[in-house]
Amino acid sequence: MRGADSASARPVRRGRLARVLLIGAALVTVGLAYAVLVPNGAMGADGAQSQQIEEGQKLFAVGCASCHGIHAEGGSDGEGNFTGPSLIGVGAAAVDFQVSTGRMPATQPGAQIPAKPPVYTEEEIAALAAYVASLGPGPAIPPEQYYDVSNATQEEVTRGGELFRTNCTACHNFAGRGGALPNGKYAPSLMETSPRNLYQAMLTGPQQMPVFSDAVLLPEDKRAIIAYVVSLQQQRDPGGFGLGRLGPVSEGLWGWLVGIGLLVVVAVWIGAKVPRA
What are the TM regions of this chain, as residue ranges (predicted)? Predict the structure, then answer.
């Protein structure tokens, strides 16, 4: 009986062993097929992106965490005073705009953070943007065709001027030279702003600027506005000083100050030459 039991158990064990070997062989085959068929660039791209995010996290911990928190959750000084907003969900475009224009990292708090030469290189800015983008969904850095206006038509420039005068002149004035706002704030001049940052500013709404999302201004509308602003940047002042291109306002002011000032100087000079009795 024992011999019969052992003989019947052997086929069962062999069957189980065969199934295990078959499953193992199938897994090895699938792994080899994946390694052969999947492009190496896909795995390389994921690895490069992970490395970029890791590098951005290190840069963030050194240069940004003191105000925005170690995990970009927003910061305070321990006494309830707000030091920096949360960056979770702001997207890569906001980081690229703020850091590439030198507004961040800020040198000191104030009503308005001015632009200055950037602190980080382009590679470091890309790493910071990638890290912040990994924390939550937000506007991505736009592709070049969204803001490239090198081949813009006159029709696009004209339409961009109409959109600019409707949406932007209240703060930036009709010539894009900027203007004063309440509480010590101001709309900066657009004469030195790159097309890429013009698009990102409309997309993210930095500081007190409203957000012009795609639901408010379509991508082609943003591109038309950029084409108009670039045309303003390329204009020259053949008559002399532009004086902010405010027309008779600034021209009349300078005429009054210079003209009346010269008359006062001449009157004083004549009075000094007249002999006294």
Answer: 253-272
